[in-house]
From TrEMBL:
The keyword Nucleotide-binding applies. PANTHER family: DEAD-BOX ATP-DEPENDENT RNA HELICASE 50. It comes from Leptotrombidium deliense. One of its GO terms (molecular function) is translation initiation factor activity. This is Eukaryotic initiation factor eIF-4A like protein-like protein. InterPro entries: P-loop_NTPase (IPR027417). Keywords: ATP-binding, Helicase, Hydrolase, Initiation factor, Nucleotide-binding, Protein biosynthesis.
Length: 167
């Protein structure tokens, strides 16, 4: 498990990341996100979640790697939801995934953890109907989760504004 972060000293050999004693409130997550996390039965910050959330505060690119796919998706969802301004119903996040099934799984995590934020996302893949994708985007979504080909197609026809995309 590793998160790149040389600039801020996030090296597993420098610290013992298995002894994280922070709460989600300590990390500075908003109350609605914290409520969504707790509502999903997550009560303790994992080392990967802590490192991902702290790295996301630096505004530098970073990489989330883990053999635990569930923890990786939860961590990514938390980072994305931390950055989203829920009152602004425009695309603020684009998540590229390898397949329709992975897009559905990722959407499940984002919607579940972001339940109290009233987050909306759209799954956009070759398997979904592009007219439906366009309707959902026009109605307002915070995050688009899709395959590279479909997201490229949507960008090519200017289906959504990228000026607010943070992640």
């Amino acid at each position: 498990m590793s998160v790149a972060g040389n600039e801020i000293g996030l090296h597993s050999e420098d610290t013992n990341w298995n002894e994280i004693d922070f709460t989600f409130e300590d990390i500075g997550l908003n109350d609605d996100l914290v409520n969504g996390i707790y509502a999903n039965g997550i009560s303790k910050v994992t080392p990967l979640q802590f490192r991902s959330l702290m790295a996301s505060k630096t505004k530098h690119d970073f990489l989330i790697r883990s053999t635990n796919v569930n923890d990786m998706r939860v961590s990514l969802s938390m980072v994305i939801l931390r950055l989203i301004e829920a009152r602004t119903e425009q695309c603020q996040s684009v998540i590229l995934v390898s397949s329709h099934d992975v897009a559905l799984e990722m959407a499940k995590y984002v919607l579940s953890l972001g339940e109290y934020m009233s987050v909306k996302c759209s799954v956009c893949t070759a398997t979904t109907n592009i007219a439906e994708d366009l309707r959902e985007i026009r109605d307002g979504v915070h995050s688009i989760i899709g395959t590279p080909g479909r997201v490229y197609d949507l960008l090519a026809i200017a289906a959504f504004d990228t000026s607010l995309v943070k992640t």
